[in-house]
UniProtKB/TrEMBL annotation:
Cited Pfam families: Response_reg
GO terms under biological process: phosphorelay signal transduction system
Organism, scientific name: Celeribacter marinus
The keyword ATP-binding belongs to this UniProt entry's keyword annotation: no
Protein name: Response regulator
Keywords: Phosphoprotein
UniProt xrefs under SUPFAM superfamilies: CheY-like
InterPro entries, A to Z: Bact_response_regulator, CheY-like_superfamily, Sig_transdc_resp-reg_receiver
Length: 239
């Protein structure tokens, strides 16, 4: 594979305001809204970013280049992000830094068991907290030296990305009645709603997941979710 010009140049040095300068981050995240939040956090921190929305897309990226940091959502449409974490941290030449991410705090243990160097609990919008999480997950020799400016700045992703997530769920429900994808819909919607701070959709997604887990009827849950999703689309994403 031919090298790009950027690959031949020495990486830029991190600064106090951009402590991730010189790093390339691959974010494996199916939610456009959540990945947009991470994209903005990375860019404000100086890192270059690429995105994959599934395990298969991540493997295509990783076959073409090697990022310094991979941030992996645990719930993905084609499998568990924990499997990718395990793969990346147990390669003959492992990725330098792999960080698990989820809106479910219980996924931290799963991520750690798979070999992750750190964990980000969604939603994440505080720039200083994000930088600290990434820097703490890096090997000590890879961390920038010197003082770092700690900021409490918050990042607000574009609501157009949230609209895309709701449209994605609506498409699944319309195309397949969602029956084969209900567990994914519940997990995906709860994660998106946590990032957006939408308590009503969090509760609806949790209700669907609970009823699925105990084998109760879930027709009313699906109808409620379909209505809420259409409502959010009509309102421009905001709940």
């Amino acid at each position: 594979m031919p090298l790009a010009l950027d690959d031949l140049m020495p990486p830029p040095k991190p600064t106090s305001q951009r402590p991730l300068l010189g790093l390339t981050v691959l974010v494996v995240e199916d939610s456009r809204f959540a990945s947009e939040a991470v994209r903005l956090l990375c860019l404000r921190s100086g890192a270059r970013i690429r995105r994959a929305d599934s395990l298969s897309a991540a493997h295509k990226h990783l076959a073409a280049y090697r990022p310094n940091v991979v941030i992996v959502d645990i719930g993905l449409p084609d499998g568990s992000g924990a499997d990718l974490i395990d793969e990346l941290t147990h390669l003959h030449s492992p990725v330098d830094c792999v960080i698990g991410m989820s809106g479910d705090s219980g996924a931290r243990a799963l991520s750690t068991a798979a070999g992750a160097h750190g964990f980000i609990e969604k939603p994440i919008s505080n720039l200083g907290a994000f930088q600290t999480m990434v820097l703490d997950a890096l090997a000590r020799d890879d961390r920038p030296t010197g003082l770092r400016m700690v900021t409490g700045e918050h990042i607000d992703p574009d609501l157009a990305a949230l609209q895309d997530d709701f449209a994605h769920v609506a498409d699944i429900l319309t195309a397949h009645d969602g029956e084969g994808m209900l567990d994914y819909i519940a997990q995906f919607l709860e994660s998106v709603a946590r990032t957006a701070g939408d308590a009503e959709i969090i509760e609806a997604a949790q209700s669907l997941a609970r009823n699925r887990n105990v084998g109760h009827t879930h027709r009313a849950d699906v109808a409620r979710i379909a209505g809420l999703v259409q409502n959010r689309i009509a309102m421009g994403g905001a709940g």
